[in-house]
Design brief:
The protein is α/β, with parallel strands linked by helices and 843 residues long. It contains 29 helices and 29 strands. A seven-stranded parallel sheet has the order 5-6-4-7-8-3-9, sandwiched between helices. A hairpin with a 4-residue loop joins strand 15 and strand 16.
């Protein structure tokens, strides 16, 4: 299937100034003889970036006592008497001024305290205004950790903290009252796209960006877009926290920091000293190479962490299990299986309560596993045991490095590669991720020394020795997602109304700053003003033309305006290509579902949903194509057409896997391995907003059967949610229609919605006859009762219309229900209205 696919090879090589006129790069196959390719790389258009300014020197200041806060409420946050040297040097900029600040310091330098200092400054100066601080964490795991840490601390001084992530969505009243909001880049980007309509967004006077060096990684474009919007539209104070940076000055300039408010400390200022060991391993294939690392891993535990906690970071959930089992086997061969058991907890009894079989086996030996596939109960058990010292070895995936603040004397990074399902190959962790993992060793509150062992592929050993503490400059990744952000600025924010507006918006981005410093990286021919202006204008015109051709904006000369497809994509935070491609394919989808059986309609709706771009990056791991094939046979043995469609996609396609995961949910199918349960949760989290957008696209196209099929799928998916998510008791939904004939042969259908339980959040009114959709309206309501009307043209002949009401309840994850009102009989200008009632049983 992928024989003719292009292979993208990325590598790093050193260059010197002055540059040679050209480089020769030869690629030689390690499997085929006489198979090589020589590439000449000219350096004529290559412009080397200027050298980075020197890092900030740590001044020999006397440690500042916490009494400098001059407020007993704030002092009780800390269990120590003095700030550390980094905190002391940055204290004045954060607590005594209101300017934007950038702080780059190694992990373990106390940057969380720096965020708190900025919040204290806001709380002291806001007076009676309901201004709030927004903390933007790169990952939900890190956001949850901040919520756990800050909620009791701020509550103790009479202030509230609210989490605003995909897992938690407080009501508007709670968000307005909150003093501190903790969110993720994607969530806050979606909120600020319509900040005029959200009071709590307009009252955000401080934005704290944690781990801002991730600007150069995959999620960087979102971070760049929301910061650019904040600086373009408001006077919000920005405080950015990061590891040590190679180009902190560029980042500080973009953030609006004055030169004296840019702090970029060396890695050596870490409060707890850390020694790093880099060890290379031969072996061409990944899995055998990982296996050869287990014995050195065991030896490192014996040498550096005897009786002290240790973290072992691996690249996958499967590796957590294999590594833990191998370590236990090696300990058993030494007849020392209890050396990693800490306190006197009855680990055998605790292990029996765990659901994960690997965890049940490993815990009695003092070894835990931690990854995204564990259920919440197992995860809490492991975290609690490791924190208390009951187990002393924890094998985990890299995401733990960004989340829970675990103490550890030793950190082992077992392999620096992971399998990228989208690319279908192993790729390297960013150096920043490796540093984040290493930073978990020797935490200031828990240890006086730290040790980090990095196990790498032998050819990469010298690379890590050179660049581990000499990071690459942070470059903008905005170009990879520019179309979506421009679409949002046109269709929702309304700030881009012409090509000139687009150029002006781009000048607020980090991309614009880096174009001046490193134009060759972005294929710009120079760094002078004229060349960059031409580049931005050409880029803006190309992006807007692409969006116009996709039908998501309307371009008229140099002027641009929103289109329905673009507004839908931006509102639901989707890729613009999702709504564009859906609008192209919806007519075919309409024709297919017209005469299909109910089961076939559902399968077609699932396929239409899973063709969305949002499922492009669903991981398909090694040999999962075989698992997918077996799962399809188990779930769809009576549906040859759907299986044929999956075969055409290929069982190694993320879109085929997404279909199977949804079918497994709808048909109560058994998933083959634990990883599929996590993937299924991910798909089901995405599905509601994608479906809502597709329903809007189908309704806008006038495709009644497609609209109803997608509505039915939405109801089916939502009704499969946990019974604990449903509202307690019985909820009665009543709807009554009233019709009046108006002037000009038009009449309206009015619907009053009432509920005696938890009120509906939103509902759809679908008015149709047997052949086509007459009208459809989506109404969002805030209370238990709401009125809505549909204005339609009176028919010339007698006909019968159906009015279907679909309500989405406020129960967790939004359970919904549907009620079909009695048919409305239309004869000329007369109309016979009806009423109906639907009772939803409690859980």
């Amino acid at each position: 299937r992928k024989t003719l696919d292009a292979i993208v090879l990325s590598f790093t090589m050193a260059v010197r100034d002055p540059l040679p006129p050209q480089f020769y790069v030869r690629a030689i196959s390690d499997r085929w003889s006489a198979c090589s390719h020589l590439l000449e790389l000219s350096t004529n258009t290559l412009e080397l970036p200027p050298p980075a300014p020197p890092p900030t020197e740590l001044l020999p200041l006397r440690p500042l006592p916490i009494e400098a806060l001059q407020d007993d409420r704030f002092q009780q946050f800390y269990g120590y008497s003095h700030f550390n040297p980094v905190q002391t040097q940055v204290f004045h900029a954060l607590f005594r001024t209101d300017g934007n600040v950038l702080v780059g310091a190694p992990t373990g330098s106390g940057k969380t305290c720096l965020a708190e200092l900025a919040i204290f400054r806001l709380l002291r100066r806001r007076g009676d205004e309901k201004l709030k601080a927004v903390y933007v964490a790169p990952l939900k795991a890190l956001a949850r950790e901040r919520v756990r840490d800050w909620t009791p601390k701020f509550r103790a001084i009479g202030l509230s903290v609210e989490e605003l992530t995909g897992d938690s969505a407080p009501d508007q009243r709670a968000l307005k009252k909150a003093d501190v909001l903790i969110t993720t880049p994607e969530k806050w980007d979606g909120v600020t796209r319509q900040f005029q309509r959200r009071d709590y967004a307009r009252h955000a006077a401080l934005m704290i960006l944690d781990e801002v060096h991730l600007l150069g990684e995959d999620r960087g474009p979102v971070l760049e877009a929301l910061v650019s919007r904040a600086r373009y539209t408001s006077t919000t104070r920005v405080v950015a926290l990061s590891t040590a940076l190679a180009n902190a000055h560029d980042l500080g300039t973009w953030l609006g920091c004055s030169r004296e408010h840019v702090f970029n400390f060396r890695a050596s200022v870490r409060p707890v000293a850390m020694e790093a060991h880099i060890q290379g391993f031969t072996g061409k294939h990944y899995c055998p190479r990982m296996a050869t690392m287990n014995k050195p891993c065991y030896a490192a535990l014996r040498e550096h962490a005897s009786g002290r906690p240790a973290l072992i970071f691996v690249a996958s959930r499967r590796q957590t299990r294999l590594t833990a089992l191998d370590l236990i086997a090696l300990a058993a061969s030494d007849d020392d299986t209890q050396s990693w058991v800490g306190t006197d907890d009855d680990l055998d009894s605790i292990a029996k309560t765990c659901h994960d079989p690997a965890l049940r086996h490993c815990l009695p030996f003092g070894v835990g596993v931690h990854h995204g596939g564990l259920d919440e109960a197992d995860r809490k058990i492991v975290e609690n045991l490791f924190e208390r010292g009951a187990i002393q070895v924890l094998v985990c995936t890299s995401t733990l490095a960004w989340g829970v603040n675990f103490p550890a004397r030793l950190v082992i990074v077992k392999g620096t590669e992971f399998f990228d399902g989208k690319l279908g190959r192993y790729v390297d962790f960013p150096v920043t991720d490796v540093l984040q993992m290493m930073g978990r060793a020797g935490r200031p509150q828990f240890d006086s020394v730290g040790v980090a062992c990095i196990f790498v592929h032998q050819p990469k050993k010298e690379f890590y020795k050179k660049f581990l503490y000499e990071p690459f400059p942070v470059e903008s990744r905005l170009l990879s997602s520019l179309h979506n952000f421009v679409c949002a600025e046109v269709c929702l924010c309304g700030r881009i109304k012409s090509i000139n507006d687009c150029v002006a918006w781009l000048k607020w981005t980090y991309l614009y700053r880096r174009l001046r410093r490193n134009p060759s990286f972005y294929e710009c021919e120079g760094s002078d003003d004229k060349t960059i202006s031409t580049f931005l204008e050409t880029l803006s015109r190309k992006v807007l033309i692409d969006l116009d051709e996709a039908g998501v904006v309307e371009l008229d000369g140099d002027d641009v305006s929103s289109a329905t497809l673009g507004s839908v994509a931006a509102y639901y935070y989707l890729d613009y290509r999702t709504t564009s491609e859906a609008s192209i394919n919806v007519d075919d989808f309409e024709a297919e579902v017209l005469d299909a059986t109910q089961r076939r309609r559902e399968a077609l709706a699932v396929a239409f949903l899973c063709s969305a771009r949002e499922f492009d990056e669903l991981p398909v791991r090694h040999n999962e194509d075989i698992e997918n094939s077996d799962l399809a046979s188990q779930l769809l043995d009576d549906d040859a057409e759907t299986i044929q469609g999956l075969l055409e996609l290929g069982y190694d396609s993320p879109h085929a896997k997404a279909q199977l995961l949804i079918h497994a949910k709808l048909r109560d199918g058994k998933l083959p391995i634990a990883d599929y349960a996590t993937d299924q949760r991910s798909v089901l989290e995405q599905a509601p907003r994608v479906l809502a957008a597709l329903i809007d696209v189908a309704a806008d196209a006038g495709c009644v059967n497609a609209t109803l099929a997608l509505l039915e799928l939405s109801q089916a998916i939502r009704s499969k949610c946990s019974r604990e998510a449903l509202p307690r008791g019985r909820t009665k939904l009543t709807a009554k229609t009233v019709a009046d004939v108006g002037a000009g042969g038009e009449f309206s259908v009015e619907v009053t919605l009432g509920s005696n339980g938890r009120g509906a959040r939103a509902f759809y009114l679908v008015l149709s006859d047997d052949e086509e959709l007459v009208a459809l309206k989506k109404v969002v309501v805030g209370g238990a009762t709401c009125e809505a009307s549909l204005a339609v043209e009176a028919p010339d002949e007698a006909c019968e219309w159906r009015l279907v009401l679909r309500a989405v309840y406020e129960g967790a994850r939004g359970f919904d229900a549907a009620v079909e009102l009695p048919p409305i009989t239309v004869v000329g200008k007369a109309l016979d209205a009806g009423a109906a009632e639907f009772v939803m049983p409690g859980s």
